[in-house]
What we know:
mainly alpha, 3 helices, 0% strand
Amino acid sequence: MAAAGYGKAGIWTIGTGIEVTVLELAALVNRLTGRDSQLVFKPARKGELSPSALACRLAAQDLGWQRATSLSDGVQAVIRWFETGAPDRALR
């Protein structure tokens, strides 16, 4: 929404700015859903990104944006959305 009033086109990265591995994210989803999904490990695919964290400096500078939601709270909100806001896609 902040970008709509910025007055010019742009591309801004929005994220936590904190590096999180896929394994850590999967463990968080398992914990928040109360499931024990078994993870399947395979070799990296060609072009797959190495660990990184989103830099939100331009969003902060241009839009005054700052992170207000933790990763855990954001993932929990997405889980709730799937369970209640998108019943056709709800986790079962």
